[in-house]
Amino acid sequence: MLAQRAPESIHNLPPLEEKRPVKPPRYISTFRPSVKREAEKNKAQWKTMGPAKVAVPSPKKFLQKHSKEPKLPARKKEQDSKKLPALSVPRRTDHPVMGIQSKKNFINTNAVAAISGLPKKPQPICVDRRQGDKYLLETSGLVPKYIKKKDYGVIPKYITQRNEDTKRAQKEYEASIVEQLKKNAMKRLSDEERRSLLQGLKKNWEEVYRDFQRLSVEIDTIPKKLYKEKLELQMKQLEHDIEVIEKHKVIYIANEFQTIGPATVWICSLILSTTTEIWNMCSYLTALLLTGQNDWPKILCKTLATMILWFSVSSKVATSSVLTLWSTLKISAEIQKGSSP
């Protein structure tokens, strides 16, 4: 089905649904309480806006001279006599406690600790020269630490999500194309429609035959001759259509060509099976071209394409029939071209 889909265009693209990403939870700092406490310490009430209500000055506390001038704080006494903190360095006059003795054998203790203790693991180093230039191996970049990480070689989440969105969009596009192809697929003609079509064709044939019977016995003028040829052509085409529809029980109609040219010719071209039917249809096309149909290029091109497709599939028609068909169409086109103004 994908090989038959229509060419891509901006007019037949499927509508994309707008999907908003999921909003992650709001980030809250772990240092928020401490920052809040520090901010509250540096704040003072009414620092910039003043008190809520200003007290009315009392008459007893009237304004005096130099009362609003800034005053220096009271001078504090000298604190030279305060005792200084003790120094961490011992004084010159301090003497250590002498005469303390211990029965511990430090030699044996150190020997036992050296024998029973685990040997010290040497730190791995790397030497790049024979002169002895060395440096730590862990920070040298020679140890494969990065490839041993847990997330090494793992596809990031955003790339996985992007690939899934791309695949989903491709599946939706293919589904829309398949649905569009199903809508534009050929429609099968039902039995009732086929029966009514046959009845209509037979009724038309009877009307044309009635007009043909009403012609005069002697046809001596050109209009009468042309009118007789027209009626004969219509009767022949109606007989051919009736024969084809009666012969084929199953008929499909393409939706694309329901409104293009003579519908009967196109339906019959899809269900042809013998050389005689092809020749009859070519004769009908030649008559259409000679009568001056305005849409003859469209009929000619589509019929020629259908015939070439049919000849490439079927093996019943001989090469001479193909050449005869091509010569008929070519001659008809030249006649129409010469008769056009």
Structure description:
With 341 residues, the protein is an all-alpha fold. Among the domains are: 148-184; 187-322, no CATH class. The chain has helices at 32-41, 106-116, 157-183, 191-213, 222-247, 263-270, 275-290, 296-313, 319-339, and strands at 125-127, 134-136, 187-188, 252-253. The strands form two sheets. Strands 1-2 form a two-stranded antiparallel sheet. It has a two-stranded antiparallel ribbon with strand order 3-4. A hairpin with a 6-residue loop joins strand 1 (125-127) and strand 2 (134-136). Mean pLDDT is 75; it is low at 257-277, 289-294 and 311-341. Residues 66-83 have a biased composition (Basic and acidic residues). One of its GO terms (molecular function) is calmodulin binding.
Concise description?
This protein has 341 residues and is mostly helical. It is built from 9 helices and 4 strands.
Number of helices: 9
Shape: elongated
Strand order of the largest sheet: 1-2
Specify the biggest β-sheet.
2 strands, antiparallel
Name the average pLDDT: 75
Helix content: 40-55%
Rg value? 54 Å
Low-confidence stretches: 257-277, 289-294, 311-341
Computed structural class? mainly alpha
Helix-strand sequence: HHEEHEHHEHHHH
How many extended strands? Answer: 4
- Terminal Cα span: 46 Å
Taken as a percent bin, the fraction of beta residues is: under 5%
Task: List its traits.
9 helices, two-stranded antiparallel ribbon, single chain, 341 residues, mainly alpha
